[in-house]
């Protein structure tokens, strides 16, 4: 029996909503720096090499970037920068802003090509109130010492991931995404392959079977897939399985059940793969997740 896709199997190929959901599921980040700045007619330069979002906690900020001038964002608005150009925020009087500088995890690196170089979402706090509420309590004041508590790392990453995914969704919902977005490949044959992997992550996928789904030779498929997604087909399958595993574990399913659902021959093999990919055993990850959501 083939295992169900985590989250349900009703998301069909070619559906932009399904493609967006797949993209948001794939978002995984590392936090480079996450600070709250209090400004008074001051200038703040964002790291040009970092994927970042800036959520305006209060006041008004003017955006200065390549090809853009005179655009301002205010309380409850958010700016997303893709790390392609130097972007500067100029406070118009007193203002405070959360700046979260991130790096996409290796398994999510292909998402970078889908994100805008620069985007701002006005009224983000109204569009995504839950994410805006998280942003209000994220980060530490610039210049202040941070008291780390056990478990802060994964909890802060989950919060940053949630806000980033919500920013991407709000940007897409505003109609700013280009036509055909968010299909990474702009290639219906690769899209078909990715849809098949997500629909049935527990299947015994090989490069040959995936190439057959995409109607390509093995060598052409492997090269085209790596060029588009930044990793091998096998690596992508593993990433999808691990995200599915996290979702199933968070629902309360046991390790053995999840292992079987995702096609592993043994619990030990599944646990080893999970630990290599996530950094914790499935049981430890689930326990930490329960603490974070308690």
TrEMBL record:
Keywords: DNA-binding, Transcription, Transcription regulation. This is AraC family transcriptional regulator. Residues 191-288 form the HTH araC/xylS-type domain. It comes from Microbacterium bovistercoris. Pfam families: HTH_18. One of its GO terms (molecular function) is sequence-specific DNA binding. PANTHER family: ARAC FAMILY TRANSCRIPTIONAL REGULATOR, HTH-TYPE TRANSCRIPTIONAL ACTIVATOR RHAS-RELATED. InterPro entries: AraC_XylS_family_regulators, Homeodomain-like_sf, HTH_AraC, HTH_AraC-typ_CS. The keyword Transcription regulation applies. It comes from the Bacteria.
């Amino acid at each position: 029996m083939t295992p169900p896709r985590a989250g349900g199997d009703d998301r069909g190929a070619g559906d932009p909503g399904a493609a967006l959901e797949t993209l948001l599921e794939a978002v995984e980040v590392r936090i480079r720096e996450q600070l709250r700045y209090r400004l008074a007619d001051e200038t703040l330069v964002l790291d040009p090499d970092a994927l970042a979002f800036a959520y305006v906690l209060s006041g008004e900020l003017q955006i200065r970037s390549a090809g853009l001038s005179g655009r301002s964002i205010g309380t409850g608005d958010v700016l997303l920068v893709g790390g392609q150009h130097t972007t500067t925020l100029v406070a118009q009087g007193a203002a405070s802003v959360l700046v979260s500088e991130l790096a996409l995890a290796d398994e999510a690196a292909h998402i970078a090509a889908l994100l805008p170089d620069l985007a701002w979402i006005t009224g983000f706090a109204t569009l995504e109130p839950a994410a805006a509420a998280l942003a209000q309590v994220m980060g530490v004041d610039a210049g202040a010492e941070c008291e780390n508590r056990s478990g802060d790392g994964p909890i802060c990453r989950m919060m940053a991931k949630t806000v980033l995914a919500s920013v991407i969704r709000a940007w897409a919902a505003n109609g700013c995404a280009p036509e055909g977005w968010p299909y990474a490949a702009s290639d219906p044959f690769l899209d078909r392959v990715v849809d098949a992997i997500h629909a049935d992550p527990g299947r015994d996928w090989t490069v040959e079977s995936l190439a057959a789904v995409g109607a390509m030779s093995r060598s052409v498929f492997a090269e085209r897939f790596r060029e588009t997604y930044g990793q091998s087909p096998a690596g992508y399958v593993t990433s999808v399985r691990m995200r599915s595993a996290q979702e199933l574990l968070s629902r309360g399913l046991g390790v053995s059940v999840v292992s079987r659902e995702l096609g592993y021959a043994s619990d030990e093999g599944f646990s080893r793969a999970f630990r290599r990919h996530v950094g914790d055993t499935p049981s430890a990850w689930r326990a930490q997740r329960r603490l974070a959501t308690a």
